[in-house]
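COURSE: Structural Biology Practicum
ASSIGNMENT: Worksheet 4, Part C
STUDENT ID: 0417
INSTRUCTIONS: Below are two proteins. For each, the amino acid sequence is given first, followed by its structure token string. Answer the questions at the end about the second protein only.

PROTEIN I
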Amino acid sequence: MTSRFDKLFTQQEPIPEAAIERVVEVLRGGRLHRYNTAAGEASEAALLEREYAEWQGSKYCVATASGGQALQIALRASGVEPGTTVLANAYTLAPVPGAIHATGGVPVLVEIDDAWHTDLDDLRTKAIDSGAKFFMLSHMRGHIADMERIMALCDELGITLIEDCAHTMGARWKGTRSGNFGRVSCFSTQTYKHLNSGEGGLLTTDEPELAARAVIASGSYMFYGLHGAIPSEETFREVRLDNPNCSARMDNVRAAILRPQLPLLDENIRRWNQRYRILEDGLREAPQLRVVERRQHEAFVGSSIQFHASGIARERIPAFISACGERGVEIKWFGAAEPSGFTSRYDSWRYLGEHQPLPQTLQVLATTCDMRVPLTFTEADCSEIASIIREEAAQFANT
């Protein structure tokens, strides 16, 4: 009899009791807006900014309504205006090009390599050819490119690096936290990320003027002094009238949900990686599948896993994905021409204008399979999932 996995791939762990208790206190107090505070009182949102800046190792932090809003504000605060060229790796999710489009930026998409990293040769070529001075680097699905080479290239060509760390909160590259390379970095607290507030975002930077512009753009009005990790009053007075209010604030309820989760993050990263390694080892046993080896100096967060269905004919991959789904294993495929759920390929973002041919990226995505690894799964669950995927891959193997 064929086994079937019976747990949801979209089920998260419960919110910590300490967060639930604090949220109830906030709700009973009725002061949900981040600037609705008594004299001398720090709001939940301000406290979150302070605590996250300390945890990340950044000077400044701005809490926003979503990760996508953090991206858009980061672009604006960095100086992107209508018509500004922005480099972006082609393997990402829709909020990244959406943020570039929302600021009026003109994206130039960069190829990826077989390990889902930015192709650094293509990055150099397109940076020079386009004259772009901004690069929004998405660490898509937690795969961190060679940051030494990227930083060297950005320094050489005068490019501002904006990091999208939605999938790398807590990850490191050669000991440095993801998000501490770029001029400004953005994080997501959407339900499927490493901290869960349903929706939410965080922006970090060490540059005072950029931080001040981001606070104003987030929608501070003239309440910027009520934020938790900000530059001096003098910095704000220089920029406060030059930046639009984008009304992208985080409220106190979501901040209260997040604060008790932050001290648990390092332990959760350990738990994610335990599950990831079991899945990785199990998938390695399937000759039809190829697991990309993670580099030793990349301390990643295994909240999802990707592999190549390289031993299955491309036209049969949808049937393989469907067969796994019928047995309760939910896998996404990045080779589909049509968007599905959260998954979309770069050539489906028609609002970006003229199609940019990226043959290497298309070839890589044609076999790319993607699967969430929620912490509600046990280690035994991960072994069972890998077994089901192996069995189905064998049914669709090239002959």
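PROTEIN II
(use this one for the questions)
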Amino acid sequence: MDKRETVCKEFIDLFLVVKRVREECPWDKEQTPQSLIPYFLEEAYELIEGLEKDDKDMIKEELGDILLHILMQSIMGEEKNEFSFEEVCKNLKNKLITRHPHVFGEVHVEGVEEILTNWESIKSKEKEEKSILSGIPKNMPALLTAFRIQEKASHVGFDWKDPKEIIPKLWEELKELENAIKENKKEKIEEEIGDLLFTIVNISRHLGVDPESSLRKTNNKFSERFKFIEQKIKEAGKEWKDYSIEELDKLWDLSKIL
């Protein structure tokens, strides 16, 4: 048995196991496509964590958990006679072939930018979308949404040429935020903070940095340093109110070097 046959056998066996779990486990029998959404999101974020850590064992496990959700949702679709797993696979196969004419067809491309432009053009025609920005999920995190909006716009040439060109825009947005704060207009402040974040995302994208991942790393770094301060306060037998902001700043600086 060659590797392809082995993979196919394992996949079929897995599908049958998931189907049996769905049919015989009381908890799984109660689930709906909607009730599994929080669990799917949790697994997705755990996979992201594994990828960021480059933890091979974690990646392997979490990919399996994601696959479980794909199979379970497909089985639920079959139960309602809405779609089958076979259709899911067929749709994906056809999509990949259609959107890669430079691989499966005779189209010649010069580079990645042209590939991405073709992808968006083909996708737009397939779905008869009214806008290049159509298809961005509404429930994605705002930073990621901003990144995808800018990325899609860039595929048709609506973009800055160099990240250095965006820096003056950043200072402009900061100045506008400063003026809004002076005016003490909450709605205007909110708008300017949004503009500032959007500009930062633009700079991140041009520098090849994922802003969502970057902020997540900063969140983790802050949390670890904050926990260090908590531990020091606990070891001293004191409470937060016993420390001045200057003393807390010294503990914060200490957390950076330990």
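ANSWER KEY EXCERPT:
Q1: The chain has a mean pLDDT of 90.
Q2: The first helix runs from residue 3 to 24.
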